[in-house]
Amino acid sequence: MSCTRIRTLLTGYLDGELEADDGSVVRGHLRECAACRQAATDESALRDGLRQLPPVDPPPSLWAGVQAQLAAAEVADAKRPAWRRALARWAPVAPRFATGGLVAAAAVAVVWWRTQRTVDDAQVPAPEVAITAPSPEVEPKVVPPPSSPAGDVTAELAGEAARTTDTYADAAEELLALATEARVQWTTEQKDAFDARVAELRGLIDRAPEGRSRQRAWGKLIKYLQGAVVRDDIALAGGGL
Amino acid sequence: MKAAFALVVVGLAGVAAAQPKPKTGLVERSRLEVAPGGRPIKQLTIENPLGDIKVEGYDGQSILIETTKTAPDEEALDRLRVSLIPNPDGTVRILTAADGGKEIKPLSRGAVKIDLVIRAPRDARIDAAVSAGSLTVVNMDAGGDLDTGSGPISVRNVAGAVSTSAVSGTTSLTQVFGSVEAQSLASDVELDTIGGERLVASANKGKIAGRRVRARDVELTTTDGKISLEAESSLRGRMVVASLRGDIDVKLRRHGVVIVRARGAKLSLGSSMASAKARSDGWVEGQLGGFKPSTQAAIIELRSRYGMVQFAVIE
To answer: Closest to B165 (Cβ–Cβ): which among A154, A160, A216?
Structure first.
């Protein structure tokens, strides 16, 4: 079953409303697909938070707007010829359903931002809904990127941190080569101090998680090497500015 | 703790309808306001590898987020995700991602985009990262940590400590009043109107250009690129401008006594340094202002192993 199909079944799955077969399929998919698992976790956490909320009274202006649109739809309906009214009864998207859908979509948009979509504000008045939610006290979960076809944006993003780190590593190697040239003028003590510091900074790099932390750690090593190569910080140690 | 920090989230729009655009495919826009229920929002962390980030400070307490997602079709649009994670300690995280999976239709990275425009309380610190998109921070009072891959970083009218890191995106810092640490691997760093205790900027393959710089402790370093600087000296200040292969051109507005030391493949120190003396270690040193060595003197060191060093005083 595809991820798209699974996402449509998630709500029913979390509510325990799926048939046994469907539930088993969803459960099996979630075991293998990190993206859908994350979506299920997000929705589940959101539901837990929402259950603790006090009931929310929508602002009077919202209901007034809904009633006004319903009334306008009824007036328009009354003015239409009989054949059009008959058609409208069978039309898949009746005005009142559209209005109801608008309100429902607004509510969904608030509780799950990713499903929000807007059209030009001038065309559609934006409903206002306020909720008060306790903030979760959990750290955001880092989900490993799910396997995706090569060349896909997800796979590309997953490999980007490593590529950036490689760029830092290449720059550091170039500077290390320059430092090797410079070190012939250093004393043994200065060489030892340099080697110890480089080892320390490499340790920081190794311990840093892939991503911004590791790139910043590489940045520290590069800065130190630039100091040694360009500003003679090592040779001037104790006697510089 | 949990009760002390409640968030009020106000969705300002939410109607299901994507706007088709002829060239870019579908565009989906949304707006969200996040207001602190208890503690004020003190830090905002934003990671958007899929597009631009613009953060603008304002006098309110809420965070206003405008998201624009672009994708070639509905299915691709559904894969683009923006997550908002408020924490009880007054920090808010905004992360973007593209959902993956084994059964998806492959989608090139250039085909999708998420742009974020965020209005944040001025006193919130910004911790932000982009990849190829631009990262812009304006009108903030608590500085930030900003990282980019190949996209440009632009910081304007910001107080507080600012730290930037770029692989190949240009870094432009204008009107920054706080300590600055800017590092670039293969791109230029532009500094304009910097006034803080400390300014440290380095570029490996790029150049550094600074104007109207006034910091007590200045350290500009490049491996290959040129460094040009127009700065004011500070009493007891320290300024080190160094390159391995790049040229150095420093113009100084002097306040008080300044000791200048320079060393380069070629030196041009101007008439104000006519009395400078060459030392046995290859440095040329001279003093501007005052007749005796002064403990108040600012020290300026200019060096390029293979490049030319130019120095002039702006009267």
So the answer is: A216
Choice among A135-139, B42-46, B67-71, B196-200 with the minimum mean pLDDT: A135-139
Q: What angle do CA B19, B24, B30 make, to 5 degrees?
A: 40
Does the beta-carbon distance from A131 to B8 stay under 8 Å? yes
B8/A178 touch (CB, cutoff 8 Å), yes or no: no
**Residue A176, phi then psi, degrees to nearest 5:** -65, -35
Residues B100, B25 share a domain: yes
Q: Indicate whether A128 belongs to any domain.
A: no
Exposed/middle/buried for B98, CB within 10 Å: 0-12, 13-18, 19+?
buried
Read off the tokens for A71: 């009334």
Q: What integer pLDDT is reported at residue A238 of this predicted model? A: 43
A165 and A111 fall within a common domain: no
ipTM, two decimals, is 0.87
Q: Residue A75 belongs to what domain range?
A: 60-115
Contact state of B11 with A119 under an 8 Å Cβ cutoff:
no
Instruction: Judge: A106–B11 Cβ closer than 8 Å, yes or no.
Output: yes
**B221 within domain boundaries:** no
Q: Are B259 and B299 in contact (CB under 8 A)?
A: yes
Query: Is the CB of residue A117 less than 8 Å away from at least one CB of chain B?
Result: yes
In chain A, residues with a C-beta closer than 8 Å to the C-beta of B167 are 164, 167-168
Q: How many domains does chain B have?
A: 3
B24-39 tens-digit pLDDT: 589 999 999 988 867 8
Q: Is residue A120 part of a domain?
A: no
Please give, rounded to a whole number of angstroms, the shortest distance from the CA of B266 to a CA of chain A.
16
Q: Which of B27, B103, B114 would you mutate first to test chain A, the one with the most A CBs within 10 A?
A: B103
Contact B27, B82 (CB under 8 A): no
Percent of the residues in chain A that have a pLDDT greater than 70, as a whole number: 56
Mutation target to probe the A interface, by most A beta carbons within 10 A, among B68, B99, B281 is B99
> Does A164 contact B167 at a Cβ distance shorter than 8 Å?
yes
A126 touches chain B (CB under 8 A): yes
Q: Find the domain containing B193 and state its range.
A: 143-198+206-216
Determine which of A212-226, B24-38, B53-67 has the lowest per-residue pLDDT on average. Answer: B24-38
Q: Output b/e per residue, B167-197; b: 16+ Cβ within 10 A.
A: bbbbbbbbbbbbbbbbbbbbbbbbbbbbbbe
Domain match, A162 and A225 both: yes
